[in-house]
Amino acid sequence: PNAQIMKRYILEVRYLNIMMGLLKGFKQKYQDMFLSHF
């Protein structure tokens, strides 16, 4: 049961990291777009 919990924890952390990376990427993209217009 312990290994199962660890597996789930790792999956959730990985998912969170991916989501954070995507958000950072989108933010950077929008900032670049916004700055290039002015």
Written account of the structure:
The chain is mostly helical and 38 residues long. It has one domain. 95% of the residues lie in helices and 0% in strands. The chain has one helix spanning 2-37.
List the helices and strands and how they pair.
Blueprint: H1 2-37
Label this structure with key terms.
38 residues, mainly alpha, 95% helix
Radius of gyration: 17 Å
Beta-sheet strand percentage? Answer: under 5%
Terminal Cα span: 56 Å
Number of strands: 0
Order of helices and strands: H
DSSP summary: helix tally? 1
What class do helices, strands and sheet pairing give?
mainly alpha
Mean pLDDT: 92
Domain tally: 1
Helicity, in percent? over 70%
Residue stretches low in confidence (pLDDT < 50, at least 5 long) are none
The shape, in one word, is: rod-shaped
Most strands sheet: none
Brief characterization of the structure:
The protein is an all-alpha fold. The chain has one helix spanning 2-37.
